[in-house]
């Protein structure tokens, strides 16, 4: 939501700066200010939602992921090795879903064919975003587990 808010603010400001004619029957100035204000509200709501979600996770006792993107990428081979050696934080079903996602991404068969101009790529993009997010979250939790294990 925060990213959507930033996008709305940018659209509003660009409307204010570069648009002279009316937009949807409204003056460009009013439309631009309205978009910028809406974007600021959506951005603030997104930050508040993210903070509340983090508080709920901490209250539920869920481990908070650790590490930045590069640390998480470097931890992936260790995560898979630890999984073979008995690490229980990564279920076999998730590894299977990752494999299915990879096969889907490289496969020429799609739910929505690439012949459709914009829609053809969106299913692949959605699968890729899910795959990267899932791998990042799992390796972040693994990094937290590794660091906690070293401290003990």
TrEMBL record:
Q: Which Pfam families match?
A: DUF1232 (PF06803)
Residues spanning the membrane: 29-49, 95-113, 125-145
Q: Does the keyword NADP apply?
A: no
Q: Report the locations given in the UniProt record.
A: Endomembrane system
Q: Which residues form the DUF1232 domain?
A: 95-130
The terms describing its cellular component in GO are:
endomembrane system
Q: Does the keyword Membrane apply?
A: yes
Instruction: Give the record's keywords alphabetically.
Output: Membrane, Transmembrane, Transmembrane helix
**Range of residues in the leader sequence:** none
Where is the major localization of this protein? membrane
User: What is this entry's stated membrane topology?
Assistant: Multi-pass membrane protein
What is the name of the protein in this document? DUF1232 domain-containing protein
The organism of origin for this protein? Amycolatopsis albispora
């Amino acid at each position: 939501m925060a990213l959507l808010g930033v996008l709305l603010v940018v659209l509003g400001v660009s409307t204010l700066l570069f648009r002279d004619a009316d937009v949807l029957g409204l003056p460009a100035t009013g439309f631009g200010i309205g978009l910028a204000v809406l974007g600021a509200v959506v951005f603030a709501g997104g930050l508040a939602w993210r903070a509340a979600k983090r508080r709920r996770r901490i209250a539920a006792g869920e481990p908070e992921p650790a590490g930045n993107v590069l640390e998480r990428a470097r931890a992936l081979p260790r995560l898979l090795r630890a999984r073979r050696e008995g690490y229980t934080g990564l279920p076999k079903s998730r590894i299977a879903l990752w494999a299915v996602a990879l096969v889907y991404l490289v496969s020429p068969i799609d739910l929505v064919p690439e012949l459709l101009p914009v829609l053809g790529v969106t299913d692949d993009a959605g699968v890729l975003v899910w795959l990267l997010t899932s791998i990042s979250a799992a390796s972040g939790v693994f990094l937290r587990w590794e660091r906690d294990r070293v401290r003990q």
